[in-house]
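Run log, item B.
One chain of 603 residues. Sequence copied directly from the ordering sheet:
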Amino acid sequence: MRFAGSLIILAATLCGLSAAQPHPDGTPASPKPNGEGGSRSPNVIVFLSDDQGWGDLSSSGNTDLSTPHIDSLAADGASFDRFYVCPVCSPTRAEFLTGRHHAHSGVYSTSAGGERMDLDETTIADLFRAAGYTTGAFGKWHNGMQYPYHPNGRGFDEFYGFCSGHWGDYYSPMLEHNGRIVQGAGFCIDDFTDKAMGFIEESAAAKKPFLAYLPYNTPHSPMQVPDRFWQRFSERPLRLANEQKPEKPEEITHKRSALAMCENLDWNVGRVLEKIDALGITEKTIIVWFHDNGPNGTRWNGGMKGRKGATDEGGVRSPLYVRWPASITPGTEIPQIASARDLLPTLCDLAGVPAKTAKPLNGTSLAPLLLGKSDPWPDRILINHWKDKISARDQRFRLDHTGALYDIVSDPGQRKAVTAKHPGVVEKLAAVVKAHADAFMADYYKDDRPFVIAHPDSPLTQLPARDAIAHGGIERSNKFPNCSYFRNWKSTSDKITFTARVATTGTYRVDLYYAAKDAGAKCTLAFNDSVLPFEITEAHDVPELGAAHDRHPRAESYVKDFKAISIGEIRLEKGDGKLTLSATEIPGAEAMEFRLLTLERVR
């Protein structure tokens, strides 16, 4: 997915430029507080939660839960009243990582390759690593799996977690560490936090500044949470109900689960705060907390319209708390609108890291607001966009995706349109929406990027069922691809294919992750002229996992304890083609249930 440079510059101007560029009104960008050399080099910890609405914190006014550690970031630092993200997961992550609108970077979906950022994008980790920081990400990546889309290819020295949009079981699941498949240790949020704290401790011991990114995966479903958090919510009455007329009725077990998961997140934030206190680095550590979209269920959200997936206020408003004891006055409240695209230039600005990117940023540095500078702040119009829905927000109004205008200051629930009362505002916001649509919608869904395998900088490539196409009677275990597997492989005319690009000619060992009721299926793996025949010599009939931990019925796929076997070596020549998995003989009920292939270069 590529766009003409003139269109990129146009949309960047509409959405607000980076600290490295002049503001839309022509005023110069704010200077870096530490100068270009970054002499202060504060540590940076960024927390990002998944499917947690603005209202899912006690600091937002929710009296049904308690989040004292997250709340303390606002009390001890700065809070933004109106901070905006995307309606769903991967676009928000991409906008934080690149400082650019997700439509600029090639992200148009949450799975099957559409979650990947284009390879010519520069990430915040690229910039901080170039400035001498050690960088680590711990949790749900959701912006590409195969290197160089992998976190290790996007500037992160260390990665522990998973790359898909959601995961099937949160207890000791199959995860990865720097591209290698590993077994998780206990509840995944606790596990991710443990690994992040280890990274922080090692960086502090080495006296190196660090960027630690914790993109958590809760309260995204499946709704799983340890007993001690669930027990606080399983029976007690909840006081707050959704103030809007809900699109769907409230599901009480889903709501209880989500709130319990939010309290678990808060407990883990508290552990990190304790760790940096113990290491004596609190004063020189910037901490950021925000969410990736609106709530994933019907629950209290400050009376706003919209939830996850919507470009209305409730679908895209997130808290933003920034704490830096050395420089940010406790209790700072910031009313100006801001977006996830602003975080890259802001953190670079605060840390003195040059925000030198190949493409123009769409965010602007919020450092002057955080540091209490009194310079005039430019008027801004922010675009919220997902698929075919585009809305625009200025400091007072939101023009929704249908063209109706709402005064959010007096009507956060978007109950009464004021379109006729403010024709000038409608015209101004509609022009920005049209320019954005004209620049990006024609090619928004166009994607001819293959899955890259056998990259020279990565010894191992993962090819999950999520990224494959099934042919014939083969079925996905769930309509959501992320952690799904393929089943019902009953015919030799059926096959599974990956649209692939081999980046390096070589010989590769292939491991297969499978389940099978019967042994004996004879299969082949082929790429252009290379063919690897193999046989399923051992049955591996195992049940689905995950239901035992669910607090509420799930929509996503269950998973299995898939067996990993080596099926041999294959010679791959550099170039494009179809990687095809097929069966030549099926003596039993089906060939296999397929979860994953890995390719490891051996010579």
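Observations after the first pass:
- The longest helix spans residues 252-279.
- Residues 1-39 have pLDDT under 50 and may be disordered.
Flagged for discussion on Thursday.
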